[in-house]
Amino acid sequence: MSLSFATEKQVAVAAVRRACLLTSSVFNKLVKNETLTKGDKSPVTVGDYAAQALISSILSRAFPEDPIVGEEDASDLRKPSGKELKDRIVSLANEALTSELALGDNKDWGIGPGSEQTDAELLDAIDRGNYEGSSIGRMWTIDPIDGTKGFLRGEQYAVCLALIVDSKVQLGVIGCPNLPFDPKDPSKGTGCIFVAVRGHGAEQLTLTLSDPTPLSIPSTEASDISFLESVEAAHSSHSFNDRVASLLSVTRSPVRMDSQAKYGCLARGEGGAYLRMPTGVGYREKIWDHASGNILVEEAGGIVTDSRGQPLDFGIGRTLGENYGVIAAGKDVHPLILAAVQKAQAEEKAKAKA
Ligand SMILES: Nc1ncnc2c1ncn2[C@@H]1O[C@H](COP(=O)(O)O)[C@@H](OP(=O)(O)O)[C@H]1O
Ligand SMILES: [Mg+2]
Ligand SMILES: [Mg+2]
Ligand SMILES: [Mg+2]
Predict the structure, then answer these.
(1) Distance from residue 197's CA to the centre of ligand 4 (Å)
(2) Ligand nearest 151 Cα, by number?
């Protein structure tokens, strides 16, 4: 029987839940100068930094020995020009750490009233995410706001946290504050937390940790799926997906959504397939963009591979290495999608030669 990671699960869900409350309250108050543009031209907001500080400081208390691979680092906040931003992040993180939430909390994890951290402690918590990754041992990976562009547009984004042991994801949590809990029943409102533990299944909870629902991907005909794909055309090739869809006689339009919310939707039976093929040379996918979604889909009975049909390797560092794309789908349609992807790749190669 596989390990149940019961304490890890409780801590991870509590941390993601607090980070979801933090990010949704930040969104309503976000002002213009609270967003920076990083070296790769992508945006980062006070919400991203504060959520990473919060999650990392909870993990550091609960599991002080575990290294963390986090998306953000505090170098810009340590500069004199970053002081205003830093002050705001410290106050947001402390507010989220100390607020009293009845459920799922534990003083030993450094959360609840009286758990304030100093500026230096919170900046250090962000920088604990600088771990380079490893194929051996335990490590956590945090994407404090996945889909920052979606977050800024008021659309989908996700707070993602996963535990990787010896290169394999063992626990994944994805918090999606803007995702309808039940698309068929709007009265259930928005906000979901997806959780999966290796060998123990996948489930969905509300942001108040109620309504736990086990998740599994229903079987479908390949022609009945609709692809879940990035909103940002620079992140995944829309035209390649269109070609794959036509090879499979898919008639439904693709569903575009930012963040790992796509993996959550797939796991609960929406869409049927996630397809992310590289748009150009050079970009390497980051482990924090896929770790939680990977286990969620696998535990919901699906398959996740690259375009060679190989599983993703979470043990080679902060990235997934050379980019062969990502294909995630239910187990009956995955082989068909993989074959169609390989056919479309062969066509592209032949065209490039001609
Ligand atoms: N050229 C590129 N190709 C693929 N992914 C990219 C990319 N540039 C940025 N990304 C990643 O795409 C993530 C968003 O995924 P999606 O397109 O599914 O919404 C971003 O996460 P962040 O928003 O956390 O930075 C970022 O890490
Ligand atoms: Mg980012
Ligand atoms: Mg991301
Ligand atoms: Mg992010």
Answers:
(1) 22
(2) 1
How many whole angstroms separate alpha carbon 213 and alpha carbon 20? 19
Ligand nearest to the CA of 48: 4
Q: Closest ligand 1 atom, CA of 71?
A: 24
Cβ neighbours, 10 Å, residue 137: 13
Q: What residues does each domain of the chain span?
A: 6-214, 227-353
* CATH code for residues 6-214: 3.30.540.10
Judge whether 6-214 and 227-353 match in fold: no
- From the list 164, 1, 136, the residue with the least C-alpha distance to 70 is 164
Q: For residue 97, report the distance from its CA to the centre of ligand 4, in Å.
A: 20
Give the closest residue to 97 by CA, choosing from 138, 77, 125.
125
pLDDT in tens, 271-293: 999 999 999 878 999 999 999 99
Calpha distance 105→53 (Å, rounded): 17
Q: Model ipTM?
A: 0.99
CATH fold of the domain at 227-353:
D-Maltodextrin-Binding Protein; domain 2 (3.40.190)
What's the pTM? 0.97
